[in-house]
Predict the 3D structure of the following.
Amino acid sequence: MRAQQKLFTALRGRRPGHTLPREFYVDPEIYQLDLETIFYAQWLFVGHDCEMPRPGDFITLQVGAYPILVVRDRGGRVRAFHNTCRHRGSRICSAAKGSAVRLVCPYHNWSYDLDGRLLFARDMEKPFDPKELGLKPIACESAAGYVWICLAAEPPDFETFRSAMQPYFAPHAIGSAKVAFESTILENGNWKLTWENNRECYHCSPNHPELCRTFPEAAAISGVSGAAEDPLIAEHWARMEQAGLASGFKISSDGQYRFTRMPLLDDATSYTMSGAPAVARPLSDKVSTPAIGALLTFHYPSLWNHVLGDHAVSFRVLPVGPTQTRVTTKWLVHAEAVEGVDYSVEELTKVWIATNDQDRRIIEENQRGVASPAFEPGPYNKLHEGGVVQFVDWCAATMERALAGQGALTHVA
Ligand code: FES
Ligand SMILES: [Fe+2]
């Protein structure tokens, strides 16, 4: 309760249009409440359907204190479970990804079916009811090739998001693409700094020479206002919509997610050094329109994403501790695109590997600075940092709602 009171006071004490107070970036008790009110309460992007094409294919991840297992079952459905054995609690799957006929705990070999049922527990004396000891399920949904989980006992509505996402993403066939490369980096910064940095391009020209060759720095592109008034963007939307590609700016009523399709600079079609496609084969057989720009999405607190004509890039943000954040980036291409023939991993990944590393350094310096007792919240730039204001306002409102008991403070234990 003391921590909740501290958070409530800090939320009430923040200055609108200014960065959050120091404790939001460094305080372990507030970090724990970030988990409780946001990461254990909201839908989180975990990975792609195409990473688990066959029954038994799985991925694992850690969300705060929770080890989680996501697996495709025999019926083809992707399910999520707590990755903790019902015997004495060992983690069952330790690999980041893999494939299994059954889920076998390495400690004493209790074995679970892909739907979580306990199948085998050697020499357990009766009475013993395996039906009571299946893996604990976690809410899991798939939307347009993106897999989501929610740890809340009563997850918030997912259908509104799914039906908003579908028209933008369906043509791009992410569900049947393949991950050509993935990278995971650890940033020594609070997860909110990762997001704040993502939600503006005020920092792009001094820091991202590779990205700036193709990605426009315009405030209307990364922000949440002004896009429709920009003639270049309006012309792009009209041309794309005519080609059957949903493109206009759409944001949810609570500001948690946004979709929009933005033009790249000049004649660029992809995030490469030359602006030319990195992959010879288009990402989707259904999209042959040239220069479609980038379909930009964010979904707080775990996904931002760019879909281009030749490939897509998804970024998953997961907090590790008050001052550590893990960012996993995946580059998706057509499932039949051949490495070494249609694309080279180096060319495909060069711009975002460099950009991610530049962002990591920025965020780590930001963390060092906000950790100083001398730090006081400074003003956001009204023109360039509208997206950041929108993010911190979403965080504050989501936390306040949860504290007030209107959101979920309880989660599946
Ligand atoms: S802890 Fe899993 S089988 Fe014993
Ligand atoms: Fe950046």
Q: What stands out?
A: The chain has ten helices and 17 strands.
